[in-house]
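As a representative case, the lines below give one protein's residues and fold tokens.
***
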Amino acid sequence: MWKQHRRAFMQLSAGAIAAGLNPVWATRAAAGSQHASLGQQVSGKAPTVSANEGRKALRLGLIISMGGDPDADLVRIRNLGIATVQLFMEDLQPTAAGPLRLALEKYSIEPTAVVVGGPGKEVWDFYQGPVTIGLVPRETRSARIAHIKKASDFAKRCGIPAVQTHCGFIPENPNDPLYSETVDAIREVATYCRRNGQNFRYETGQETPITLVRAIHDVGTDNQGVNFDLANLILYGKANPVDAIEVIGPYVQGIHAKDGRWPTNPRDLGQEVPISKGKVDFPRIIAGLKELDYRGAVTIEREISGPQQMEDVRVAKAYLEKLIGT
């Protein structure tokens, strides 16, 4: 979730920087793979990310919002002892790519994805969310397709292997006209990313796991993956992440290490809380990722601002390092 107070965790200026899994699940999901629309085929597994080859498994990361000085932003990440980042970029102009790439190289920080949100109003709740978030709303769809393509071009200039976004409240009913429209929109941006040599990643949250897999199959391109936000499925009341991995596990290319509690007010999302204080079972999930030989980053996300954000990030890093075994 990326706007206003739900993106406060990424504001460096505010003082922050930033499953009973079982291999048989992947086998089951792969066995269920079928031909997608337009005669294209999804393999039942996310494509290999070449940037992960030879890398240490389960390396920690942080999601941050870049300001105007990438050198200053990234030295703070390096000083935290974190070696990977997901980047939310306000400035996608080509002239910003060079300084960012130089700073990434200078501090030996691996960028795992460019994160895209907007443009336009996005409200992170159950009433306004379905009509404002992602590629589902018709009124903002064209502008957002163009924005994702711009982010893809920017990522290409920086050598970043993936573009990810919330696609929105993808309809559960595949017969809903909005479902096919959204699939067409996702196919357009995924195809664009493919031409730029990138994977397109859905961030989990607004849709149930099976709806997400259905959309992946119906979009049909071979460069789709999932950024598995462990808390979002709980915050939106969609699934327990330990169970959800049975459905989406084969497609996972990124992890958001975040914690939260189930929603109790039917209008509002559940509460995001510090890692280990919510309902995400991190020990089971980390153990299962090891069994699956997951090679992507485990990217810390904390959706608050101010000094407490930095403290929570440090505590989360130490907690995850113990589980990962670094």
